[in-house]
């Protein structure tokens, strides 16, 4: 069986936010000098805090609206903005998203769904033949990864599995775990890297994300085991919602693995937000916006320190104990994060207002 792997052999860059880890690895393979901090910051993704109303949902960090028949327009709009921000790093992106749900159950897929999966597989293979890596949603669980080659009817991939000591197993084209639809990022011609204008736009985007975005995320998930109507809570209010869920700990709303996964993602997001803001102030040393950027970076450092305390309470694991006393302690930590989030947001606004 013939095997094709692109020469640069892209490697997923360790990151809980799999979009950032996969895109950074792909762009590095294309010769761009970037890392997860750059992807997280210019895309705005790291500044977005998001949880699901009423329960701890592991899908909230990736915002793909889960088990829906058709991805809602607000989610597509959000990810289009994230892609626009990513392009500031020096590459044009052809963002493919078939918003119809792609399910993998035990029974065989119907012919129409198989045809959709096969069409994407052939499209991606053509990119591999050109020596171009492709970032794909749902290579391993609903997360992003990199396709670096193909063999027979399988993708050859680089994903977060390599970071946790698991082997990178080829993924059959029709076994994607792509909740919310088939999605792929194809990288086109290189452009000039981030300009001063791109930096200012990154701060504007960060403010929008940190505020909670202008989009409303509500959707129906028929036959969902927890609730059929769901809503995402974004921005500083997300910490209050998450804390309330833990404090109440109603049956069927709190799961150890889900809670610990969301915690790991948000802890890392605050760390990346601090590091990206620090990079901006160093890049613009001597300018009017520097003091406000420094204060924003420090506020994000404080938020990250508190989230580290929360992660210590709930380290990521498949299972674990969540007694009410522990949940209430965690809730108090989450409520303590919110003031730092608001402080960082205020300083980002100040930086934007005086930007020169």
The whole-angstrom Rg is: 20 Å
CATH class value of the domain at 3-190: Alpha Beta
Q: Structural class of the secondary structure composition?
A: alpha+beta
End-to-end gap: 58 Å
Order of helices and strands: EHHEHEHEEEEEHEEHHHH
Q: Provide the CATH architecture of the domain at 3-190.
A: Alpha-Beta Complex
Give keywords:
356 residues; alpha+beta; Cathepsin B, Chain A; 7-stranded antiparallel β-sheet; globular; 10 strands
Task: Summarize the structure in words.
A hairpin with an 8-residue loop joins strand 9 and strand 10. The termini are far apart. Helix 1 crosses helix 2 and helix 5 runs antiparallel to helix 9. It is globular, with a radius of gyration of 20 Å. The model has no long low-confidence stretch (mean pLDDT 95). The strands form 2 sheets. Strands 1, 3, 4, 5, 6, 7 and 8 form a 7-stranded antiparallel β-sheet that branches. Strands 2-10-9 form a 3-stranded antiparallel β-sheet. It has 356 residues and is an alpha+beta fold. The longest helix has 31 residues. The protein has a domain of 188 residues: Cysteine proteinases (Cathepsin B, Chain A, Alpha-Beta Complex), CATH 3.90.70.
